[in-house]
Design brief:
Length: about 325
């Protein structure tokens, strides 16, 4: 199975989804439906008038039929074409499943009390059964219906289980070598006991989901660095790549605890390829291949119609030549 990586830099989030066709030029994406998701902060007990709401647009990539969930914060998550069901174009009210509060510590910090606490909510997309996670920053990550077991019982929500942590060195774009000054980013791994999904959350609060049915065998080892990538990302309205186009540094590690691949950016965004589907390449690092770009209109929560004022988000699509994973990055 080929995997797709999604990165989003409202606060930079990465997420993965599978598929198998590659594009050479961009075609207009297909707008499917929309939804609004609510999320409590880590300190909010109930959904009240102050609970945050985020607008989510659902698109299909016209070249490969991947499903793309894009939030008004600029975050994006993808579900591969073989697993994504767009329905009849009529959205349905998402079903809230449960909420979670996770804590992520900074690199080198052992004290949980100093960690960043982040509220997350879990919804089921009633069009296709996919599970959608959203955090209080408006970042989203999806797990395809066929790859998860949605077993949340009403009134019997289970707390997440912490599994392990790691500190990862991540170079900035243009930083050639790892040095003593290279940034280290703390990463925590939890299991959502309500469905078996793994949640990787960085010290920045960004997170990625690894679907419960696709986990590798647990081993209990340190992460192993694979290679680094540098990707150019245009802003909305920026027609061509230039010397001024923003560049993002990404490192790729294998979580030796379960075989998963971890993609992490210089700002702490993460994406996961589950252990059962992870490919590590031949040991010879290769540069990414640009495939196409797209610009998506995303309505804010409560915004009924698309207008000239509707927010637009630019997304680049790359192929990771080391393992055929595909990167959506905004």
């Amino acid at each position: 199975m080929i995997y797709r990586l999604s990165a989003f830099f409202a606060l930079t989030l990465l997420a993965m989804a599978g598929l198998d066709a590659f594009a050479q030029e961009a075609k207009d994406p297909i707008s499917r439906y929309a939804m609004d998701l609510r999320c409590r902060t880590s300190t909010q007990v109930d959904f009240d008038k102050d609970a945050k709401k985020f607008g989510i647009e659902v698109y299909s990539d016209a070249y490969n039929n991947d499903g793309l969930y894009v939030s008004d914060s600029g975050s994006l998550t993808a579900v591969g074409s073989k697993l994504f069901k767009p329905g009849d174009g009529k959205g349905k009210e998402p079903l809230w499943r449960h909420g979670l509060t996770l804590t992520a510590r900074k690199a080198g910090d052992k004290d949980w009390d100093k960690g960043k606490k982040v509220g997350l909510e879990v919804f089921r997309d009633e069009v296709n059964g996919n599970l959608l996670y959203v955090n209080e920053l408006g970042q989203v990550s999806a797990a395809a219906a066929d790859a998860v077991t949605d077993s949340t019982e009403k009134g019997k929500v289970k707390a997440p289980k912490w599994l392990h942590a790691m500190d990862l060195k991540v170079r900035k774009a243009g930083e050639k070598d790892f040095t003593k000054d290279t940034r280290k980013i703390g990463l925590e791994v939890f299991r959502d006991e309500n469905n078996g999904n793994l949640i990787y959350i960085s010290e920045a609060g960004s997170f990625g989901i690894s679907a419960g049915k696709l986990q590798g065998e647990l081993k209990g080892n340190e992460p192993k660095w694979q290679y680094g990538l540098e990707l150019s990302v245009r802003k909305a309205g920026e027609a061509k790549f230039s010397k001024d186009t923003k560049k993002i540094g990404i490192e790729v590690f294998q979580d030796e605890n379960n075989g998963s691949l971890i993609y992490i950016t210089e700002s702490g965004a993460v994406a996961i390829v589950p252990g059962k589907n992870a490919k590590t390449g031949d040991g010879k690092a290769k540069g990414p291949e640009f495939m196409h770009g797209m610009e998506l209109a995303v309505r804010r929560a409560g915004e009924r119609d698309f207008t000239k004022e509707t927010k637009k988000i630019s997304i680049e699509v790359y192929k990771d030549e080391n393992n055929s994973n595909v990167i959506y990055i905004s």
